[in-house]
Amino acid sequence: MNTPMIRYLLGRVLQFQAGFLGLTVAVGLIYRENECWSFAAAALVCLLVGTLFVRKKPQDMSFYAKEGYMVVALSWILLSITGAVPYVLNGEIPRFEDALFEVVSGFTTTGASILVNVEAMSHVGLFWRSFTHWVGGMGVLVFMLAIMPATGGPGMFLMQAESPGPSVGKLVPRLKGTAKMLYGMYISFTLLELAVLLVLGLPFFDAITTAFGTAGTGGFAITSASMGGYSTAIQATVTVFMILFGVNFNVYFLMWIRKPKDAFRCEEMRCYLTIIAAAVLLITFNIMGGFESFFEAFHHAAFQVGSVITTTGFATVDFNQWPEFSKTILVIIMFVGACAGSTGGGIKVSRIMIMFRTIGKELDCIIHPRTVKKIRFEGREV
Amino acid sequence: MQIIIVGCGNVGVTLTEHLSGEGHDITVIDQNAKKVQRVSSRYDVKGIIGNGASYMTLIEAGIETADLLIAATGMDEQNLLACLFARKAGGCQTIARVRDPEYIKEIDFIKEELGLSMTINPEYAAATEIARLLRFPSAIEIDTFAKGKIELLKFKLEAGNRLCKTQLKGIHGLVQCDVLVCAVERGGDVVIPDGNFMLEAGDVVSIVASPSNAAKFFQRIGVETNQVKDAILVGGDSLSYYLAQQLCDMGIEVTILEKNFARCEQLSELLPKARVINGDEIDRELLLELDVRSTEAFVALTALDEENIMLSLFAKRHSKAKIVTKVNKISFDEIVDNMELGSVIYPKYLTSEYIVRYVRAMQNSIGSNVETMYKMFGDRVEALEFQIREDSSVVNIPLQELNLKQNLLICSINHQGKIITPRGQDRMQVGDTVVVVTTNIGLRDVKDILG
């Protein structure tokens, strides 16, 4: 195990964390809130420790899968701890374990909260909570790869360790280029959503936290009613973006390089959209009785399906009141999850598809024991 | 630059390592998924599984925007096909590894018809390198440029040499062979000399010459070249054949030891001048019988690296010969380099070095009419290769009538595949490739050579 190299990379991670916290401090200064001092303190400590760690560049740059997983695991732990401390220091979440829960929930884009009264939180506190979603969505190490000078060695193993999908595909030959591209798309979509929400009349703070929550498919909202208090147009916008962030980013890349045909050929995206469409229709017909119009039922069904399949977790209505059939569908699609290579969670559509094809193959083998069959996915053998 | 490498074998991986390290964007293609995975997890490159000679795979690899495709699979046909498709689909430059002697014979035709920028034959490259080692002592440095077509020999003029205090225009009369002095380093300055330039002791002189002329030249000016008189080559593969051919051409007595009888017959047919011995390569008694003790050169070229190392150690113990060892696969460089194996030749490194040099030259020439550019003498001299595509103010005029820039020399003209060392009456013609050596850094077009 190459300890100096791990130390060096963790130092870098801490420096980035200092930057993220610094941004939060800026928000606090804008709203003139006293709570922001604790974030400043945490940022300073991160910066100091981080700089100390990176001061000596390691001689031995060898870096393998083992080191990759080590760095990823340790860096998430570090990020979570340093992210939780400010809440404890300024007393907004007095118990450390509660604060840690909240921040881990944020970074992992889980979206579960221990906060009883969200409205009582300061702007800084709420911003940081939502911001962890945004950082966690694409991953801080991918961000690091995008910004750090191309070192060659550690990159690929870090990416492998960080990526949730079954396999890592590069968009362009250089890892740095790939990471930049991913963040470029991520930032563009976030800004786009922000713009649309602003146009629809959402206050800036609500808009940016909602955008962060959607982009990372996290689900922290800044009101207890989640999205319930917003207008139908805003809820619809969030629905669309939740679904968009659940699509494999390769699809967007293909569109970017003007290969829309290849983009629409993506089997996983087609399957994902089909699942959504089917789930939305089934639930709409099931819950129609409880709403005034078909449109309203469709709207809420679409929002819930988008929120659940990407594991975002925003809510407009309490779907616990819905019939069992709808709830069952929601639970199923929660397991299925979004596409690989997206910010969404779950088992991922591609794995489910491969699983079903394997089942098909096994059945074939039972019927014709001498069958030779290879499982293909996206036009390739698995 | 965006480079696509087809084939993740020995050469492909070495190339990937070097070119990726120099900051190029690399995409590798191989049919073997495991190999692709190994390469793309070790280096920062994109890997694609598929047949590099298939159009779809090339498109997937981004051939449309690529600058260069290097085909280095083990199969010549696949390499050539990949290059052809790449050329048609993306219009990028292409380099192919071609090793079949049948194709090597018609390589100029293939290059022309398929629009290849360069072909490389690892065995031939290695053989040429070994021949150089046996031909000259280490005091003479050899550099190649213009895709290996031109050889540049650099040596230090010792006091008392007959060339001291000679004007360059008098050299030809003195040595009676075709050489061109193209650069002289004196007291830290590099000059491109003209006919009136006077050589002095201590100058580091670079000459351009064909291999046989170079040997004659050194002999005539009295520089001891230590060219060996005989050589034992152990192993009779194609590298050995190429080497034997070159050595025979230089008048060196060659003995080849090969295990396979049929191959021996083949070799003796191909190389009438060489002595071909059929016998076990690691037979100690046989080696002694072949007079390892008194041979002047011993080259271990069997297919097994371990055998080669053993053989060289044995030769080292029993003779004072120049020893050359071929190492194909073993990557424990630090161990191999510390053994007494004489000069160690790694064909894969050589091949990749040639290609890397070409890529560098290609990158240097981006944005100008220069085909390729090489830097020499620590970046102070540039050797530029121009293709004459159209009639201009420099074409079809005897060189002596051109008003050339100071410190500039036209050191070779490739006229329809024939390399000419130009004199005053020669002229450049449309379709020729010329190599210009100059200290005027930054020429962009062949017309810039005029003062």
Beta strands of chain B, count: 22
Average pLDDT of chain B = 85
Distance between the termini of chain B: 33 Å
Query: What can be said about the biggest beta sheet of chain B?
Result: 6 strands, parallel
Morphology of chain A: globular
- Secondary structure class of chain A reads mainly alpha
Side-by-side strand order of the widest sheet of chain B? 3-2-1-4-5-6
- Indicate the percent of residues in helices of chain A: 55-70%
Q: How many helices of chain B in DSSP terms? A: 15
Classification by helices and strands of chain B: alpha/beta
At CATH level 2, the architecture of the largest domain in chain B is: 3-Layer(aba) Sandwich
Distance between the termini of chain A: 32 Å
Described by its quaternary structure, the protein is: heterodimer
Q: Number of domains in the coordinates of chain A?
A: 2
CATH class of the largest domain in chain B: Alpha Beta
Pick out its properties.
heterodimer; A: 382 residues; mainly alpha; two-stranded antiparallel sheet; B: 451 residues; alpha/beta; Rossmann fold; Alpha-Beta Plaits; 4 domains; 6-stranded parallel beta sheet; 15 helices; 33% helix
What does this protein structure show overall?
The complex is a heterodimer of chains A (382) and B (451). Chain A is mainly alpha-helical. Helices cover 66% and strands 1% of the residues of chain A. Chain A has 2 domains: 162 residues, no CATH class; 214 residues, no CATH class. Chain A has a two-stranded antiparallel sheet with strand order 1-2. In chain A, helix 4 packs across helix 5 and helix 14 runs parallel beside helix 15. In chain B, helix 1 packs parallel to helix 15, helix 7 runs parallel beside helix 10 and helix 7 packs across helix 15. The two termini of chain B are 33 Å apart. In chain B, helix 11 links the parallel strand 13 and strand 14. The longest helix of chain B has 18 residues. Chain B is 33% helix and 25% strand.
